[in-house]
TrEMBL record:
It is found in: Membrane. It comes from Agromyces agglutinans. The lineage of its organism: Bacteria, Bacillati, Actinomycetota, Actinomycetes, Micrococcales. It is a multi-pass membrane protein. This is DoxX family protein. The chain crosses the membrane at residues 68-90, 97-118. GO terms for cellular component: membrane. Its main location: membrane.
Length: 119
């Protein structure tokens, strides 16, 4: 079970790291055509979301992998789930599909619970 948890954690970290790097390094105006919801965010908010997603991705892997403060791994997972809940609310408000945010949020919850139970 721990191997499956590591695989899911690693995949989730890759997704959030990629999303975080894109959102934190690309000007918001260039993201709007592909990510319409960026219209509702300021430049600072968009960059902050990207930074938080990138830090969350690192928080999923580094504490558990190094054994240094491993309790931070489920905290990072739950924080990412909360981030996805806010993202889901934004998509619902804009009458867009919220499925990707919901799926990522549920996966983050599963990872967080997995690390609490099995970590």
């Amino acid at each position: 079970m721990l191997i499956a948890l590591w695989i899911l954690t690693g995949l989730l970290a890759l997704v959030f790291l990629a999303a975080g790097v894109v959102k934190s390094t690309t000007p918001r105006e260039k993201l709007v055509p592909k990510m319409g919801y960026m219209e509702d965010l300021s430049d600072g908010q968009a960059r902050t979301v990207g930074i938080l997603e990138g830090l969350g991705a690192l928080g999923l892997i580094l504490p558990a992998a190094t054994g240094i403060l491993p309790w931070l791994t489920p905290v990072a997972a739950f924080a990412l789930a909360l981030t996805m809940a806010v993202g889901t609310a934004l998509h619902v408000k804009r009458k867009e599909t919220a499925a990707p945010s919901i799926v990522l949020g549920v996966l983050a919850l599963v990872v967080g619970i997995g690390w609490v139970v099995f970590g």
